[in-house]
Amino acid sequence: RLSKLPHHKTLDEYDFAFQPELDPRKIRDLATLAFVQAKANLALLGPPGVGKTHIAVALAVAACRAGFTVYFTSLDDMVRHLTAADAIGRLARKLHTYLRPNVLVIDEVGYQPLERAQANLVFQVISKRYEKGSTLLTSNKSFGEWGGVFGDEVLATAILDRLLHHCDVVAINGPSYRLKNRLTAIDGQ
Ligand code: ADP
Ligand code: MG
């Protein structure tokens, strides 16, 4: 649900001049939501503070306004809710939360490494959404590091296989916007 969004940022509020290596045309192209229509995926990769969540939220809001159903979650929250549901025999029902929406945003893949059983739950979501809906995720880890994130190379490869078959990958390599003012303050001393 959109009420779960961490904030309501738009692309108009994103300062492309601060992130010169990111091509604004690429993001504006994504904002046409053709990838959502095509049930394709989007991965936003990069270090903290470059605006991955900002752009994911902006696209989610745009998709919602365009009439698509959208659900926003962090990977950790999704895994916690699925694990809890599984423990009381309600996994299938809880999975629907993540399978039903046209657009599922999974924020913060890679901040916490997962146990095998948790990684398996993620695989179920990704494989069941494959070619049925758009999955939009953000990660501070490159795909090569996903084996470590999911605790298992075979499982990570299986997840990436489904995810990347139809997927735009946008790597944002640049400075953290969160540190912008702080660094300016230090420079000015
Ligand atoms: P990430 O998810 O990559 O760690 P966020 O999207 O949470 O980063 O961005 C951190 C904060 O900085 C947010 O408040 C976001 O709106 C803002 N921000 C990041 N990049 C930009 C930018 N280029 N222009 C304007 N605000 C930005
Ligand atoms: Mg983020």
How many beta-strand elements? 5
- What order do the SSEs take from the amino end to the carboxyl end, as H and E? HHEHEHHEHEHHEH
CATH architecture: 3-Layer(aba) Sandwich
What radius of gyration results from the CA coordinates?
Answer: 17 Å
Multimerization state: single chain
Give the strand order, joined by hyphens, for the main sheet. Answer: 2-3-4-1-5
According to CATH, the fold-level topology is Rossmann fold
Strand content: 5-15%
Report, as a whole number of angstroms, the end-to-end distance: 45 Å
Present as ligands are: adenosine-5'-diphosphate, magnesium ion
Task: Count every helix, treating DSSP H or I runs of 4 or more residues as helices.
Answer: 9
What structural category characterises the helix and strand content? Answer: alpha/beta
* The CATH homology group name: P-loop containing nucleotide triphosphate hydrolases
The CATH class is: Alpha Beta
Helix content: 40-55%
Low-confidence sequence ranges: none
Report on the biggest sheet. 5 strands, parallel
Q: Domains counted in the coordinates: how many?
A: 1
- Approximate shape: globular
Describe this structure as you would to a colleague.
The protein is of the alpha/beta class. The chain has a single domain, classed as Rossmann fold (3-Layer(aba) Sandwich). Helix content is 46%, strand content 15%. α6 links the parallel β3 and β4 (134-139). The N and C termini lie far apart (45 Å). The structure holds adenosine-5'-diphosphate and magnesium ion. Residues 52-53, 107-108, 138 line the site of magnesium ion (MG).
